[in-house]
Design goal:
alpha/beta, 8-stranded mixed β-barrel, two-stranded antiparallel sheet, binds ligand C2E, binds calcium ion
Length: about 280
């Protein structure tokens, strides 16, 4: 049994260890899941706490496994990344989220930025810009309502290449956010070189803001940094009122987290759009 793994072929033998076997299993199951339409996109609102309006919706993929039920990305995204299956899965997520957003805009809901995660493999894909252009055309979605999230690690892999790609995306009117900001290896220098719109403060820092003076200091500093660089700042993983109040006190007005809503299926998200402003 030969199975494609990226650009190399891997031969399955009984001596293969359990972990590799499990991987191969997951890979095959993911292929089938793509064919059988087993993926689903859930959306989590980003809320502007001054207006109470939903300003963004982050698309988060789930796998509706026929036996296991709902499987979360933590259990399959890494294997999808390593096998290259993240490319077709990611395209499907982007198309689905754009179609959904377009449908809601056409139905008269106030427009909301669609936020889509891009993995390293996706970002480094040669025809990324063409793929995104095609999906925007096919779905009729206005690029100014699309925000792509990439991590510092992805950005720093090949800085010259990153500058080129981000400039092309920015020219199209697409927004760029740095996900998990503060957790990766990067230099502040790139904030100057790259056309970035948003910094997203990682959940690990938000978790500690009320109990840990170092987390509080880091979060406060990121908020000021973003303001001084004229970037939008979004706090992710806001779970409690104390965290919410801390962030509000630091003049961070865009938030995402369970305190507002968990990621929910499209029908439920439409319910959230209907009962705005959020409170
Ligand atoms: P992420 O991009 O950092 O997304 C935020 C994760 O935190 C999501 O987990 C979300 O459900 C969770 N979250 C949001 N608010 C809270 C909160 O208040 N408390 C806690 N404890 N968690 C919160 P999820 O959906 O399991 O996704 C995990 C990761 O998988 C994402 O992290 C992202 O890196 C990746 N991922 C998800 N969907 C996609 C996708 O379509 N493409 C790619 N490339 N990666 C994806
Ligand atoms: Ca994200
Ligand atoms: Ca992430
Ligand atoms: Ca995160």
């Amino acid at each position: 049994l030969a199975k494609e793994q990226g650009n190399t072929y891997q031969l399955y033998t009984p001596s293969m260890n359990d972990k590799a076997y499990e991987r191969l299993n997951t890979e095959q199951a993911l292929c089938k899941a793509l064919e059988n339409d087993e993926f689903e996109v859930h959306y989590q609102p980003q809320v502007n706490i001054i207006t109470g309006q939903i300003t963004g919706m982050e698309a988060l993929v789930r796998w509706k496994h026929p036996e296991k039920g709902l499987v979360y990305p933590g259990d399959f995204i890494q294997i999808a990344e390593e096998t290259g299956l993240i490319i077709p899965i990611g395209e499907w997520v982007l198309r689905t989220a754009c179609l959904q957003s377009k449908a809601w805009q056409d139905a008269g809901y106030p427009p909301v930025t669609v936020v889509v995660n891009l993995s390293a493999r996706q970002f480094l894909q040669q025809n990324l810009v063409e793929t995104i252009t095609r999906i925007l055309q096919e779905t009729g979605m206005d690029p100014k309502w699309l925000e792509l999230e990439i991590t510092e690690g992805v950005i720093m892999k090949d800085v010259d290449y990153t500058v080129k790609v981000l400039q092309e995306l920015a020219k199209m009117g697409i927004r760029i956010a740095i996900d998990d900001f503060g957790t990766g290896y990067s230099s502040l220098n790139y904030l100057k070189r790259f056309p970035i719109n948003t910094l997203k403060i990682d959940r690990s820092f938000i978790q500690g803001v009320v109990s840990d003076i170092q987390d509080a200091a880091i979060v406060s500093t990121i908020i000021v940094l973003a303001r001084n660089l004229n970037l939008k700042v979004v706090a992710e993983g806001v779970e409690t009122e104390e965290q919410y109040l801390f962030l509000r006190g630091k003049q961070c007005y865009d938030m995402q987290g369970y305190w507002f809503s968990r990621p929910v299926p499209a029908e439920e998200f439409e319910g959230l759009l209907k009962r705005q402003p959020f409170s």
